[in-house]
Amino acid sequence: MQYGLGLYTGQVPPDEDISFHDEYARIIEQAKLAEEVGLDSIWLSEHHGAADGYLPSLLPIAAAILASTTRLTVGTAVLLAPFHNPLRLAEDVAVLDQLSGGRFILGMGTGWRRTEFRAFGADMATRGKALEETAQILRLAWQGERFGFDGRVHQIDSAVVRPEPFTPGGPPIWLGGTGPRALERAGRLGDGFFGVSAPFDSAMSSFSRVLDSAPEEKRTSFSFGQLRSGFIADDPELGWKIAGKGMTYTQDVHARWAAEEAGAPVEPDANLSSEDAVRRYNLIGTPDEVTAALRPYQQRFAGRTDSHLCFRLYHPYMPHDAVLDAIQTFGRVIVPDLRTPAGQGPRLD
After folding, report:
1. pTM score, two decimals?
2. Which of the chain's termini has less CB crowding within 10 Å, N or C?
């Protein structure tokens, strides 16, 4: 199994004393360190119009990370397909795949915030179809032949994409989502599925539902990605002091967005996430405790180099040196321990 960092969101809260230039430099530095300590991947997340600058443009920063590393895979978890022209996306990703020598995974989702759909003039009612058609167009475009497409959302009269991707047929396309239709779509159309942070049993249940929808010939090669969020510290309470404010902030942002979607906006300074809820969502522990909590993934996916566990160690407000120390511990201590024979188990097909 592969281990990576993220999701990287590039958020800079209005009261944090750091520029976006410095925030992006930190992400690049952390990616370079991740490669140095033996980690495998970095994952990026997209949203638009956020006051804290939540990453709106994933491919430029993916290119910067890939240019700064030689082995690391960069994945998007997820790029929001309804806001991208699929032909332009096919070209951009083909160039990125060539530049990186095939070190890119394109994870896509539908998006869910009405304000973003209004900003792009996209129809929220057809977001699932937009994602499906984008995946279909990308695969046609990456065959290197002239093609056309007549869909419900997208129409292409005649086009050819040059250059072709470095990866024959194009880089892997992973799909995300949580509802029944999203899980079915991921299995039917994706090469892999990326799940949000959830208890292990729930995550495995979602992946099983995805596999049930995958064509029989793809089930043994279908990839799994999973987000876990937390922090590593010899003293977990010190870890909470270092990371808790940022964890609470990011959880509050999503709670605020959900309230807006439900038509019940809240005051900007309202506290929406209790400390107990934030601690339950985030895995904060000693190296041994974090290793024990992550071991079930290694046991379930042992030998599956096409699957990734993504651990978010970087949150707003955090001292950068503390993050770098945690990345060192994750890559040099926890992951090697997970990969020892005692941590291995049966392969999941």
Report:
1. 0.96
2. C
The pair phi, psi for residue 69, each rounded to 5°, is -130, 170
Strands 2-8 and 308-312: parallel
Closest by CA position to 1, among listed 218, 290, 303: 303
Residue 114 CA to residue 226 CA, distance in Å, equals 26
Digitized pLDDT (tens) for each residue of the chain, 349 residues in all: 999 999 999 999 999 999 999 999 999 999 999 999 999 999 999 999 999 999 999 999 999 999 999 999 999 999 999 999 999 999 999 999 999 999 999 999 999 999 999 999 999 999 999 999 999 999 999 999 999 999 999 999 999 999 999 999 999 999 999 999 999 999 999 999 999 988 899 999 999 999 999 999 999 999 999 999 999 999 999 999 999 999 999 999 999 999 999 999 888 778 899 999 999 999 999 999 999 999 999 999 988 899 999 999 999 999 999 999 999 999 999 999 999 975 444 344 4
Look at residue 175 and give its three-state secondary structure.
Answer: strand
